TrEMBL record:
Main location: cytoplasm
Family affiliation: Belongs to the LDH/MDH superfamily. LDH family.
Activity-regulation annotation: Allosterically activated by fructose 1,6-bisphosphate (FBP).
Pathway: Fermentation; pyruvate fermentation to lactate; (S)-lactate from pyruvate: step 1/1
Coiled coil stretches, renumbered: none
EC number from the UniProt entry: 1.1.1.27
Annotated substrate binding sites: Q86, R92, N124, P125, V126, D127, D152, S153, S154, R155, T235
Enzyme kind, highest EC tier: oxidoreductase
Limits of the Lactate/malate dehydrogenase N-terminal domain: 8-146
UniProt KW keywords: Allosteric enzyme, Cytoplasm, NAD, Oxidoreductase, Phosphoprotein
Pfam families xrefs: Ldh_1_C, Ldh_1_N
Protein's name in the database: L-lactate dehydrogenase
Species for this entry: Branchiibius hedensis
Cellular localisation: Cytoplasm
Gene coding for it: ldh
């Protein structure tokens, strides 16, 4: 039996990210039931109706919605996208206070109606919110984690593919640390078709991926969200797809390696924070981090990212 059959995924928040995630879940056939929850009844009802009208063109699934936690009862996975909207020029960490309070209000009811659900926190600043959510719910770290740098790593792979002229599916590279300004690319373990990126011989018509190119790519990965928000108000398509990919890894028990945001205490001397590292995601959620080899420079960057996140966490008394 397909493990996705009979499964239920609930999405909290019917804004741009939540609605797009629900759309991606339906078009990819990721679950048999998709539930959308939002305090704005008119908005959630409209989104559900619009999504339902496309049912003929998607794999068989039910789309339901509501304004309280009961609509999420018995979910296998809960995707939390509700929160304050990021404004142009505003950093993710500046969003923390409002979103933390919202998560603390909503999560206990969700855990009550779906105690076995794997919860994926997507709302920014995702690492800080994920840490607060763990403290609020008391759930084990494998059962609640953040979308982390899955999207950032996709951006990194896309830009490497563009710079080298190869298919993005043949690029393997990860962003680690904060989902935000202090994140770092793990260049030392990046590969193209199994070949180390740092040893890559450029194809005709393409420049070497030297330090200057790598710095440009890293800068674009970090700042592309700001560019998108400036132009259209929100990032939603790529994060909707990235989140759906995480959901599929859980429901399909895939043991897929994804850089999700988990409690990273003790890794390379990191204090008690949630940040992203390549980890195994399966039906149990995320309960194993890879012992990824990193260079001294990458380790320094990762520790700096952890310190920045820890400082923010402490501002909220967590």
């Amino acid at each position: 039996m397909n493990p996705i059959q009979g499964s239920k995924v609930s999405v909290i928040g019917a804004g741009a990210v939540g609605a797009t995630t629900a759309y991606a879940l339906l078009t990819r056939g990721a679950a048999r039931t998709v539930a959308l929850m939002d305090i704005n009844k008119a908005k959630v009802d409209a989104e559900v109706l619009d999504l339902a009208h496309g049912s003929e063109f998607n794999p068989a699934a039910d789309i339901i919605g509501g304004t309280d936690a009961s609509v999420c009862a018995d979910s296998d996975v809960i995707v939390f996208t509700a929160g304050a909207k990021q404004k142009p020029g505003q950093s993710r960490l500046e969003l923390a206070e409002t979103t933390i309070k919202l998560a603390q209000q909503v999560l206990p009811d969700l855990v009550s109606v779906a105690p076995k659900a794997i919860i994926i926190m997507v709302t920014n600043p995702v690492d800080v919110v994920t840490y607060a959510a763990l403290k609020t719910t008391g759930l084990p770290p494998n059962q609640l984690f953040g979308s982390g740098t899955v999207l950032d790593s996709s951006r990194l792979r896309y830009l490497i593919a563009q710079a080298t002229g190869v298919a993005v599916q043949n690029v393997h590279a990860y962003i680690a640390g904060e989902h935000g300004d202090s994140e770092i690319p793990l260049w030392s373990t990046a590969t193209i078709g199994g070949l180390p990126l740092l040893d890559w011989t450029p194809m005709p018509g393409y420049a070497p991926v030297d330090e200057t190119v790598r710095e440009r790519i890293a800068h674009e990965v970090v700042h592309s969200a700001y560019q998108i928000i400036e132009g259209k108000g929100a990032t939603n398509y790529a994060i909707g797809l990235a989140t759906t990919r995480i959901v599929e890894a859980i429901l399909g028990d895939e043991r897929r390696i994804l850089p999700v945001s988990t409690l990273a205490t003790g890794f390379h001397g990191i204090g008690e924070v949630c940040l992203s590292l390549p980890s195994i995601v399966d039906r149990r959620g995320c309960d194993m981090r890879l012992d990824t080899p990193i260079s001294d420079e990458e380790e320094a960057g990762l520790l700096a990212s952890a310190r920045a996140l820890r400082a923010t966490i402490e501002q909220f008394g967590l």
